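User: I'm new to structure prediction. If I give you an amino acid sequence, what do you actually give back? Let's try with this one:
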Amino acid sequence: MNYKKLLNDHLPSQTDKTPVVIALLSGLAIGAAIGLLFAPASGSETRTLISDKSKDLADAAKDKLQTYKEKIQTESEDLAATAKDKFQSYKEKIQSGADDLADLKDRAVDAVKTKFNDVKDDAAAAKQDIENA
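Assistant: Good question. You get back a string of structure tokens that encode the predicted 3D arrangement of the chain. For your 133 residues, that looks like this:
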């Protein structure tokens, strides 16, 4: 079974968006910091604003992480279900093949028994003919 192909079929073609997310978050943080430093506000207000923005940024990162975690969980469940279905299908095919082989064996045994009984009967009849002659 080609697991790499199966994984590629169930995952988006570009799953690594980490550099883009890091660049976006870095740009936002730098832009916010520069904007706050040049804003006409007092130091305590600026620090409070920076703290709030940092918390917002951390919350956004947590939300993205949770989203990716859920997506990976969903994809892994789908992959597991597909693998389970394939396993069940192959199991049924193997069982069917085994049943067919058992039937074939039974027919072969019956055919050999029939031939043996026919030969035995022919031998008994030939013996009887010899004894009568």
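You can read the tokens as a compact description of the fold. Here is one thing that stands out. The longest helix spans residues 43-132.
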